[in-house]
Design goal:
about 200 residues, four-stranded mixed sheet
Length: about 200
């Protein structure tokens, strides 16, 4: 049987219609898990856990002499994904983690007091809040079967940008922890947000 050029395009078009119909019939279902488990500690990473606050022994990095800060925390959040595709549903399981990198975090000699550690803990808490916002957005948004990996990535990048903005605002408002009244305001606000989440980790 000979298929003309027009016939080839007709077959290709039909296949596209079939694929589109298949994708259109699918829905994207997202579930999430904290992994590693909250409070897990590895050689270089502390994973956020409400029962495992930061300690000065977690700050193992080399002091940046040019920095004006007394201490610095390297924290953030990330995700990994597992995908299971079925005829009617694309199951996306996100493994979320809020982390503190020990070798990227440091404190100047003589500055390792309780108040300064509380300030650095609040930075870690802000990273956790940002992970919660990312999780809530992914679970709330309607993801398309065609573009869900990119959509999840864009939600993540937006949450990451907002986290950085919030970290900078926190340091600016508290003058890097030297304005004690502002520090107290932020501590209360951050604590309320963590408690309002059903499972802050």
């Amino acid at each position: 049987m000979c298929i003309t050029s027009t016939g080839k395009w007709s077959i290709l078009f039909s296949l596209c219609i079939i694929c589109y119909s298949f994708l259109s019939a699918q829905v994207v279902k997202v579930t999430v898990t904290e992994s590693p488990a909250p409070g897990t500690i590895t050689e270089d990473t502390v994973y956020y856990g409400k029962n495992r606050p930061l300690r000065w022994s977690d700050f193992t990095g080399r002091v940046r002499q040019q920095s004006p800060s007394a201490a610095l925390s390297f924290s953030g959040f990330s995700y990994d994904a597992g995908i299971l595709v079925k005829p009617d549903t694309i199951h996306v399981h996100l493994f979320l983690q809020t982390y503190f990198v020990r070798s990227g975090s440091w404190v100047r000699p003589g500055e390792n007091n309780t108040y300064a550690l509380s300030h650095e803990q609040l930075h870690f808490d802000i990273a956790k809040i940002s992970e919660i916002k990312f999780k809530d957005s992914v679970l709330r948004d309607h993801l398309s079967p065609e573009y869900y990996p990119m959509e999840i990535k864009m939600i993540f990048l937006d949450a990451w940008r907002k986290m950085n903005d919030l970290q900078e605002t926190f340091d600016r408002d508290t003058r890097h922890g030297t304005n004690h009244s502002k520090e107290t305001e932020w501590e209360r606000k951050i604590t309320r947000k963590l408690l309002s989440d059903s499972d802050p980790g």
